[in-house]
Task: inverse folding
């Protein structure tokens, strides 16, 4: 094949695709493959990779074989090409979805030289009769799309991809090859080149920077708070398209269900659903009949929806590459895209659990990838910089302005001295160990491995205290990103100095560091962007005054009217309608009926007077869960089953059972647990505690216990009386 004149190529672009100009480096890439050079293209999603092989195929003699992993995508691509052409024979796909007659037709069209592009699955290509056929056909070149599938280090490994080279060799000698992918770490790049045995390849790497995407990690405290946060987030982006990724089918269903209950047009998508249903959901999403898809990672590969405005990771992504690929589906049209990832350390355990039956080598690889993701999550370095570094790119801008870490930068600490010590320690241990070993070494963990290598005699052994492990790890990780250190993944993650690191050692300069995030400890809150999530202290005070008044009218303690948590919820979400009111935490139907109007009138007035933009859409309805437990508890209490036995039956502790019962009572169901009180407490004492709750300003159990400190009772005894009191007076 031969390179073409620029004008001729441009005319072909216009003629076949209707575009006036090439995008990015498309033209160079096309010329490269037209000159029969092996070509590797790494270009972010949406960059226009398909055209890089489609156009040269259309202007060349013979048929280009396009290897692509997904049958569903092939049909899409073929339809697209046919849409531009006058004759359907110009493009075909060849895979297991065709019947015999259809296959025969395809092969005839190829033989007749009518077909310029033949999409084929690697499984089909590797069949021997395919090879025999293609040997006879005129093949212009081979395109390997989604080439990262070839590497076990990529995010979507397909074993059949490893056989491609052998098949091509069976078909002909010097067939040029172009491989394309949107994600490839340096490790995956070299895997692609090696496994496809590309000859003196020309490599085109686009920047991986997606300037229009905003990255943020949010702590995932508990399910309820997280879901509430997500509902608020989505509602502030009304009818915008988005994807939520979760780790398993069950969570997918649960989250989708909760969104639906809250009036969000959402659907679940996972491998357990019938394939018809799945493709219907995909269509609905593309056609904007569905706004949000809650999916396992099975969704979205190759989805060409340009205006996805947000991608939420409800669970921790499996690798940073997955994260990049999945978030990359947002903002393909170049407009904004918010990428929010919720994180809780427990997710790591969940991911590890998924790996438990995998072969050791695969498990170890996966654990390393998870570790890398964790480093990203905990890092206080610019998210963009971190991601780009992962793909072998140095991002020099100081503040990208488009990630949580750049928006709320942490204080820089000068750690030049500590850093120098760490570099020396790495050199003195001969640059042969991974980060785990080094952290243990620097913090002086007692372990026989150090004796084995004589490392416990080195000056740097144990220079940091054991509780500084996080600190040392943070410095090493940030030094990796800043290119002072290099981690060799192929060599089990061994860390060594780069030239920059050696220069620092020879002529020490300054090195600063920002403390990592510690999402495990309480108190850290990233800025919340959802409106209406802040507690309105002024309104809270107004509501407390009202509660006191109402309580006095009914001769009841204030907390019997509404508990503090309920008032706080009101002062956060400004409920006005009775529906909204019934959704307030701890508010039963009965209470909403009895007191709702008085309170909502006050809230309404307050909202008007203070000109508050009410987040009227911020009421989050929860789906009923544990309903089976609830029924069991109510039935058992009716039958006067001893509570200890009931707790055992339900697999709860006694304390947990009391909490459950209290929740049931506080949401408006009357339960008579007098029998349990008779079992637990002296009758007079129970009476006294009961009266105490009537008089008390607070329903705090601790205060009650203090009041009765002379008596031989504990928290559960007080709580059980409180339950009786609330059941009889509270609703
Ligand atoms: P990738 O495979 O890299 O993710 P695609 O090949 O699907 O990207 O292309 C993304 C979008 O860019 C498509 O909608 C395509 O039509 C469009 N596109 C490709 N090349 C051009 C061009 N030269 N001019 C305008 N649009 C283009
Ligand atoms: Mg593509
Ligand atoms: Zn940033």
Result:
């Amino acid at each position: 094949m031969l390179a073409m004149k620029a004008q001729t190529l441009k005319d072909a672009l216009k003629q076949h695709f209707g575009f006036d100009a090439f995008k990015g480096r498309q033209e160079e890439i096309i010329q490269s493959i037209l000159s029969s050079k092996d070509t590797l293209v790494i270009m972010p999603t949406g960059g226009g990779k398909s055209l890089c092989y489609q156009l040269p195929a259309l202007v060349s003699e013979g048929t280009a074989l396009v290897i692509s992993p997904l049958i569903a995508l092939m049909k899409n691509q073929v339809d697209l090409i046919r849409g531009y052409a006058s004759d359907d024979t110009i493009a075909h796909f060849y895979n297991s979805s065709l019947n015999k007659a259809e296959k025969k037709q395809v092969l005839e069209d190829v033989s007749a030289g009518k077909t310029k592009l033949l999409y084929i699955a690697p499984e089909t290509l590797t069949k021997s009769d395919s090879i025999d056929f293609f040997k006879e056909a005129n093949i212009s070149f081979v395109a390997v799309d989604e080439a990262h599938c070839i590497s076990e280090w990529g995010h979507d490994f397909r074993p059949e991809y490893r056989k491609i080279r052998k098949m091509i060799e069976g078909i002909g000698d010097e067939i040029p090859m172009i491989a394309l992918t949107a994600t490839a770490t340096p490790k995956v790049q070299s895997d692609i080149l090696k496994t496809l045995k590309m000859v003196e390849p020309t490599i085109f790497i686009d920047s991986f920077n997606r300037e229009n995407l905003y990255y943020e990690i949010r702590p995932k405290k508990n399910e309820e708070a997280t879901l509430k946060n997500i509902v608020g987030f989505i509602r502030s982006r009304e009818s915008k398209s988005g994807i939520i990724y979760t780790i398993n089918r069950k969570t997918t269903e649960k989250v989708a269900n909760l969104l639906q209950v809250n009036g969000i047009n959402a659907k679940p998508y996972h491998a357990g659903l019938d394939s018809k249903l799945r493709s219907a959901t995909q269509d609905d999403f593309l056609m904007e009949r569905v706004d949000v898809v809650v999916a396992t990672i099975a969704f979205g590969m190759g989805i060409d929806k340009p205006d996805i405005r947000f991608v939420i990771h409800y669970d921790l992504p499996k690798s940073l590459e997955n994260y990049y690929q999945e978030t990359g589906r947002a903002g393909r049209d170049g407009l904004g895209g918010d990428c929010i990832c919720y994180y809780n350390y427990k997710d790591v355990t969940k991911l590890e659990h998924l790996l438990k039956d995998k072969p050791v080598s695969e498990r170890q690889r996966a654990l390393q990838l998870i570790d890398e993701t964790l480093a990203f999550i905990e890092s206080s370095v610019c998210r963009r910089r971190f991601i780009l570094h992962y793909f072998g790119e140095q991002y020099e801008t100081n503040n990208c302005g488009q990630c949580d870490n750049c928006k709320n930068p942490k204080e820089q600490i000068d750690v030049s001295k500590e850093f120098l010590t760490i570099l020396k320690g790495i050199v003195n241990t001969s640059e042969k160990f991974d980060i785990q070993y080094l952290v243990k070494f620097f913090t002086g963990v007692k372990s026989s491995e150090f004796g084995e290598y004589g490392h416990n005699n080195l000056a740097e052994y144990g220079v940091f205290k054991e509780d500084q492990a996080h600190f040392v790890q943070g410095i090493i990780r940030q030094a990796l990103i800043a290119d002072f250190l290099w981690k060799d993944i192929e060599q089990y993650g061994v860390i060594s100095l780069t030239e920059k690191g050696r220069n620092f050692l020879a002529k020490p300069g300054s090195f600063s560091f920002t403390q990592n995030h510690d999402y495990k400890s309480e108190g850290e809150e990233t800025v919340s962007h959802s409106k209406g999530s802040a507690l309105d202290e002024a309104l809270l005070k107004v509501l407390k005054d009202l509660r006191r008044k109402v309580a006095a009218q009914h001769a009841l303690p204030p907390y019997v009217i509404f508990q503090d948590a309920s008032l706080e919820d009101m002062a956060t979400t400004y409920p006005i309608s009775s529906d909204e009111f019934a959704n307030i935490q701890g508010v039963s139907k009965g209470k909403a009926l009895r007191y709702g109007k008085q309170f909502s009138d006050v809230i309404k007035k307050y909202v008007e007077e203070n000109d508050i933009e009410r987040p009227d859409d911020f009421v989050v309805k929860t789906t009923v869960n544990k309903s089976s437990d609830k029924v069991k508890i109510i039935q058992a209490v009716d039958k006067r089953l001893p509570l200890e036995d009931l707790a055992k039956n339900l697999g709860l502790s006694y304390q947990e059972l009391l909490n459950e019962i209290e929740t049931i009572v506080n949401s408006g169901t009357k339960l008579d647990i007098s029998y349990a009180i008779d079992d637990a407490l002296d009758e007079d004492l129970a009476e006294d505690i009961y009266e105490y709750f009537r008089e008390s300003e607070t329903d705090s159990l601790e205060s009650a216990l203090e009041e009765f400190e002379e008596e031989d009772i504990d928290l559960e005894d007080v709580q059980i009386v409180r339950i009786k009191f609330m059941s009889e007076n509270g609703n």
The longest strand covers residues 213-219. The chain has five domains: 6-205, 213-407, 413-513, 537-609, 626-729.
